[in-house]
Amino acid sequence: MANVLIVGEIKDGNLKKISKELTSAGRKIADALGGQVEALLIGDGAEKFAAELGEVGADKVIIAKASDFSAEGYANIISATISEKKPGVVLMPHSGFGKDYSPRVAIKSGSGIVADVVGLSIDGGKVVGKKPIYSGKAYANFKVSSDIQMFTVRPNSQEVVQKKGAGAIENSAAGFGDVKVKTTGSELSGGSKIQLTEASIIVSGGRGMKGAENFPLLQSLCDTIGAALGASRAAVDAGWISHSHQVGGSSKYIVAINKDPDAPIFKVATYGVVADLFDVVPALTAEFKKVLG
Ligand SMILES: Cc1cc2nc3c(=O)[nH]c(=O)nc-3n(C[C@H](O)[C@H](O)[C@H](O)COP(=O)(O)OP(=O)(O)OC[C@H]3O[C@@H](n4cnc5c(N)ncnc54)[C@H](O)[C@@H]3O)c2cc1C
User: Fold this and answer.
1) Does the beta carbon of 204 lie inside 6 Å of ligand 1?
2) How far is CA 214 from CA 42, 83, 121, 142, 211, in A?
3) Element (H, E) at 166
């Protein structure tokens, strides 16, 4: 039997989607290993999100108070919770916050950790984390040999499944403790309307866009269908769009527009349109506007 502890994320007063993704993933693991799912939420007012995590499989939601973000403080709270609850598996978000605190949690807990997994399964009673390697050209499977198996999970890689857990609330006395670095403010770079890590649809442009001046064409399609604007590294390196828009990695469905029928993207795309993007994108936007109002 192994209980699963998931660490949710609250940012700017909102529960991040990754919290539900981790709870659902944790539920599957706990069901397979015969354990419970405990979700830790850190932040002022976190208790108002407990029911949402209960709906997707949390048996218990542990609430810890914090008025701002501190990697050291979060690591202190999470490792104190691990010491008390003794979970067999810990899932944390591979978000900006998670990337900062998770290595500290692993060190404090004396645990191995696999970062940035996109798949979780069970083999021989151990959790297997699947992660892309060689710039996404291959996948590798990892197991953690320490008593606690820790993983950070890439946002948007796990399905949210409605499966009711008890969702009981427990207040934690754990706090930041003595931290040396404090967050004094934060601002969103790039002015994205929808964050890439939260988006279920991304419209992404590359070298074919020809220049910065053509990205509003894609933004217009994004606004119409509620998508986030992405870009290839080449477009970012060319200075056409800010780095915060760069994409790379896994997608469930890919619709590719390319005027070259032999373009490599067509080997991985779900749907391919062989045409000039400057014809197709405005036509698509107009059609979506008609259909979606
Ligand atoms: C280790 C490593 C890691 C990397 N990681 C990333 C990463 O995470 N993310 C990333 O984005 N890149 C990454 N890259 C770089 C990546 O290989 C390039 O950024 C990417 O291939 C560039 O794609 P692109 O479509 O912008 O340009 P190209 O590959 O040059 O393709 C341009 C395409 O646009 C088509 N086209 C041109 N004009 C039009 C038009 N009018 N209508 C329709 N089609 C048109 C052309 O036919 C062509 O196929 C990485 C590279 C390395 C080596």
Assistant:
1) no
2) 41, 53, 42, 42, 6
3) none
What is the whole-number distance in angstroms between the Cα of residue 13 and the centre of ligand 1?
A: 36
Distance CA 49, CA 52 (A): 5
Q: How far is the CA of 231 from the centre of ligand 1 (A)?
A: 9
Domains located in the chain, CATH noted: 4-171 (3.40.50.620), 196-292 (3.40.50.1220)
Closest C-alpha to 22, from 52, 63, 66, 67: 52
pTM of the model: 0.80
Q: Under a CB-based contact definition with an 8 Å cutoff, are residues 130 and 138 in contact?
A: no
Q: Please work out whether the CB of residue 260 comes within 6 Å of at least one atom of ligand 1.
A: yes
Q: pLDDT tens digits, residue range 241-284?
A: 998 898 877 778 999 999 999 999 999 999 999 999 999 999 99
User: Ligand 1 centre and the CA of 117: distance in Å?
Assistant: 24
Does residue 257's CB lie within 6 angstroms of at least one atom of ligand 1? yes
Q: What percent of the chain has pLDDT over 90?
A: 82
- Interhelix angle 277-292/215-225, nearest 10 degrees: 20
